[in-house]
Write a structure and sequence with these properties.
The radius of gyration is 19 Å and the shape is globular. Helix content is about 15%, strand content about 20%. The longest helix is centred in the N-terminal third of the chain and has 15 residues. It is α+β, with helices and mostly antiparallel strands and about 325 residues long. The chain has five helices and eleven strands; from the N terminus they run βαβααβββαβββββαβ. The chain has one domain. This is Chitin-binding type-4 domain-containing protein. Its cofactor is Cu(2+). GO terms for molecular function: metal ion binding. Belongs to the polysaccharide monooxygenase AA13 family.
Length: about 325
């Protein structure tokens, strides 16, 4: 079903490969990373604002996030019930004057809703485009809160609980005609499904994306399935989470690429994955960079849905019960 990219895709032999490797090494130390292009993220909409870059929504940077995780006694990665380690939409911004501080939700710039950027239909398949300016590999996940995430969200735990109710799943490439006998280097979204973790989209090398996006990014487009019963005519929030693999192996990475290479008939394009790099598994003090963005969307109910009240979106979020940090 899946084909392997031919050798030499990156250009004229070894010289091109060396250039790509050197470029990657440079970018891995640069202060530029990624953001949602479509539907447009709040931070990309407001890229003309002073003193921030749209691709720096990493909670202030790995060191600051790790310090907050350690101070709270939380595990890594700090999704779920962890409070005050990162903003739901990526605040505080890297290199900002407050990168090391964690502000209350009403003071987090990108918790401010930015206006609906896409209108989708309940139960439909949707394309999401992400721009990457420095490729740290790893994987993406997407969540939807049907009550909306904004400055009125009572707590991070309440907002995260709403998002976690709707973790989107990839559309299986095995069901898509355009992914039959295709070179996954030509259509990265045809990469084999992570059957154990169907929400994850594993990031290919930069050379396999579409260049020339906003902020000089390389773009990748991925198709996801909206679940039946999820709609929010008044607006809801799409959250992008990128767990990178530039410092440690994320849980499931080695297993995914082993299975993907088998599904792809013995191989994937050169450079996919980091399982050939000597790194520790993520966890404990082995932590890697993370990114979060929010985009404002609307999901209309299907014609057969006669309910007048969106499921879970009938009113403001209630504060989530406090969850103690692990012993």
């Amino acid at each position: 079903m899946f084909a392997t990219a031919p050798r030499g895709r990156l250009g004229a032999g070894c010289a091109a490969l060396v250039l790509v490797a050197l470029t990657t090494m440079f970018f891995e130390s640069a202060d530029a990373h990624g953001f949602i292009v479509s539907p447009m993220a709040r931070n990309l909409m407001r890229r003309a604002d002073a003193n921030y870059c749209p691709h720096c929504g990493n909670g202030g940077g790995t060191a600051h996030v790790q310090a907050r995780i350690n101070a709270g006694g939380w595990g890594f990665p700090d999704m779920g019930s962890a409070e005050n380690t990162h903003g739901l939409c990526g605040d505080p911004w890297q290199n900002s004057a407050v990168a090391g501080q964690f502000a209350p939700i009403p003071q987090q710039p990108f918790m401010l809703a930015g206006g609906v950027q896409a209108t989708w239909a309940e139960g439909s398949q949707v394309d999401i485009t992400v721009g990457i300016t420095a490729n740290h590999k790893g994987y993406f996940e997407f969540r939807v809160c049907d009550a909306g995430i904004d400055t009125a969200t009572p707590s991070q735990a309440a907002g995260q609980a709403c998002l976690d109710r709707h973790v989107l799943r990839r559309v299986d490439p095995a069901t898509r005609p355009e992914c039959t006998n295709v070179d996954v280097g030509d259509i990265p979204d045809c990469q084999p499904m992570d059957q154990a973790r169907p929400s994850r989209w594993w990031l290919p090398p930069q050379a396999y994306g579409t260049p020339g996006g906003p902020e000089a990014s390389t773009q990748f487009t991925m198709r996801y399935q909206l679940p039946e019963g999820l709609w929010c005519s008044g607006g809801c929030t799409l959250q992008w989470w990128w767990l990178t693999a530039n410092s440690c192996h994320p849980e499931g990475e080695v297993e995914y690429y082993r299975a993907a290479r088998e599904q792809a008939g013995g191989g994937l394009p050169a450079g996919w994955g980091t399982s050939d790099r000597y790194m520790s598994d993520c966890g404990g003090q082995a932590q890697t960079e993370q990114f979060w963005n929010c985009a404002d969307i609307r999901i209309l109910p299907s014609a057969g849905n006669s309910s007048s009240t969106p499921p879970g979106g009938a009113g403001p979020l209630e504060p989530a019960p406090a969850t103690p940090a692990p012993e």
